Amino acid sequence: MPEIRAVSRRLLLGGALATTGALAAGAGASSVAAAAPSAVPAPPRRPGQTSMIDVPYTAHRTVRVGVIGLGNRGSGMTTGWSVVPGCVVTAVCDIRADRARRTADGLAAAGKPRPAEYGGSADSYARMLDRDDIDLVYIATPWEFHYEQGKAALLAGKHVIVELPIATELDELWDLVDTSERTRRHLMLSENCSYGRNELAMLKMAHEGLFGDITNGHGGYQHDLRALLFSDTYYTDAWRRLWHTRSTASFYAMHGLAPIAAAMDINRGDRMTTLTATATEPKGLADYRARFVPANHPSWKETYVNGDLVTCLIETAKGRIIRAEHDVSSPRPYSRINTLAGSRGIFEDYAGVVSAGGGRIYVEPDHSGHSWRDFGSYRKEFDHWLWKKIGDDAANNGGHGGMDYVLQWRTVQLMRAGLVPDIDVYDSAAWCAPVPLSVMSLAARGRPVEIPDFTRGAWVNLRTGLDSRTTEMPPVA
Ligand SMILES: NC(=O)c1ccc[n+]([C@@H]2O[C@H](COP(=O)([O-])OP(=O)(O)OC[C@H]3O[C@@H](n4cnc5c(N)ncnc54)[C@H](O)[C@@H]3O)[C@@H](O)[C@H]2O)c1
């Protein structure tokens, strides 16, 4: 892993990340560490409990997947799992048994093995977890079930991939980390945008030193969901709208935060230390309801408390700043922001023509004169090997521009080859921590709150993550 950096332009440019030792003990590292607020004490590990960092999967000939939650996301992703080479869906579960039946019928009609069906009650998933023909559990239920179901899957001896967020409370995040460490099973956030083509090119450029020393980045989830939130047929039982009646929080910024965190080597040489949140007034949902929702609709009994725009300013141990935004209740075009900047230049996604790949860039010495350049040629030059290898398959099979398929393909092949996951439980916990921490910061009138170090000190070590290389992946039949 360190040899990647040994040949990178970042090191040639004299970038800050030299060796693990320098990060752990070098003057620069220790001075920023000293400047950072004291860390929230990590709960002690139980005897025998050890880190899951760099722990490879046991090699699997075929990866057998069990799915919990077969709504919009789960049903589409189930099709995705079923077409990945070396993967088979062996069981499906939804509290609504008809959805399990519909999904099983669909797979059988597509010529795939018919999965076992579970459903009918809130705990049907627990019976599914008793099966011994499931290696990986994929969870796509409403947010309130993720922690309980993810933990149960780990305790049943399965690896787990959970939709965003893996949990919504700090103690739950710690418990998932600890349960992963105790069960020796991996749990990862199903963070598909981390496998986006632009995001991975941005990551490669960051590691090659094109932006110089990275100083700041911005990401988020800005998606006008108002019509879907008030739809009676989209989110089951309006679960997502109801979260907006419960708390003021950055519920779902991970799609933009995670790629920035990856480019900054969070948990791989740097870590997020403090978070400060702001929230605007909650106006968008009530305004939309007043204009478009009939007076007899159940939503008229609700009061929306989540700010339309919740912003988290996150500081890292190396003094970088990340701005992570969440806004799903305002009229606006979609954006995950994806902006990364440093001493030599800047990339801004969603600024160009999105159908042409989006993005604009300005990096020295390639550019001068203060005018933006198109990202296209950089995207081509720094295309990640995953997209070169399976980009066509992804375009044919996957949602969200193909990145769902890349995430699924990569996860399955890592398990088959017996390699270390790109995204581990520590990344997942760190990226989801802004959910509860934004609540805490807002409750403290916008004061900074400390972000736990879920790695318990191991963040100082450089290691590979999403920046993998094709040569690290043995061929899998
Ligand atoms: N990564 C992405 O790009 C992406 C995109 C969309 C949604 N999501 C996430 O996927 C998840 C599901 O979202 P959705 O849009 O599919 O919602 P949805 O309402 O369409 O589906 C949720 C499903 O979970 C089922 N369910 C509820 N409780 C259950 C239980 N106890 N056991 C089994 N099944 C249960 C419901 O019956 C429903 O079929 C959410 O966490 C959401 O944030 C992620």
The portion of residues assigned to helices is: 25-40%
Largest beta-sheet characterization: 9 strands, mixed
Distance between the termini: 25 Å
Individual helix count: 19
Radius of gyration: 22 Å
Structural write-up:
- This protein is an alpha/beta fold.
- It has 19 helices and 15 strands.
- It has helices at 2-6, 9-12, 20-25, 27-35, 72-83, 97-109, 124-129, 146-155, 170-183, 197-207, 226-230, 239-243, 254-263, 284-292, 376-381, 385-397, 403-417, 425-432, 434-443, and strands at residues 63-68, 87-94, 116-119, 136-139, 159-162, 187-189, 214-222, 272-279, 310-316, 321-327, 339-342, 345-348, 360-363, 373-374, 449-450.
- The strands form two sheets. A nine-stranded mixed β-sheet has the order 14-13-12-11-7-10-9-8-15.
- A hairpin with a 2-residue loop joins strand 11 and strand 12 (345-348).
- Helix 8 packs parallel to helix 9, helix 9 (170-183) packs antiparallel against helix 18 and helix 16 packs across helix 17 (403-417).
- The longest helix is centred in the last third of the chain and has 15 residues, at 403-417.
- It starts with a helix and ends in a 27-residue tail after the last strand.
- It binds nicotinamide-adenine-dinucleotide.
- Nicotinamide-adenine-dinucleotide binds at residues 68-74, 93-96, 99, 122, 125, 140-143, 145, 163-164, 190, 192, 235-236, 239, 400.
